């Protein structure tokens, strides 16, 4: 199965199921006769910018990202407001803690914004670290994140 077909199938699975873990994707695909590894699913999740959103019965499940017609800033604002936990700064570094699964998408969106004050941004499952060019740039970037959260 080609990557594009697999990712389309993942979209269908997300629309039909509350998928909480990458292993759930692997199990559902295996049940349908599609052999795939957890590492492949992990890469697909990152590329598709899937996010985890709260489930009705508690916990979190994967969801499709904001529709493509929204511009990057709107996507960034929505992702922040849906997944935000905390924001902190240390010298030139700004850290955003988010719901599990949201870190890669948020890091990508921050990078796509091309903020001049940011040297680089790194994201893992639930943390995004932006290293700014100066302490004043870090303060300015932190203020931008705060403004996206409050508006």
From TrEMBL:
Q: Which Gene3D superfamilies match?
A: 3.30.1360.40, Winged helix-like DNA-binding domain superfamily/Winged helix DNA-binding domain
The residues covered by the Arginine repressor C-terminal domain are: 80-146
InterPro entries assigned to the protein according to its UniProt record, in alphabetical order: Arg_repress, Arg_repress_C, Arg_repress_C_sf, Arg_repress_DNA-bd, WH-like_DNA-bd_sf, WH_DNA-bd_sf
Cellular component annotations (GO), alphabetically ordered: cytoplasm
- Which pathway is recorded for this entry? Amino-acid biosynthesis; L-arginine biosynthesis [regulation]
**Primary localization:** cytoplasm
Keyword vocabulary terms for this entry: Amino-acid biosynthesis, Arginine biosynthesis, Cytoplasm, DNA-binding, Repressor, Transcription, Transcription regulation
Q: State the family it belongs to.
A: Belongs to the ArgR family.
Role this protein plays: Regulates arginine biosynthesis genes.
Q: What is this protein called?
A: Arginine repressor
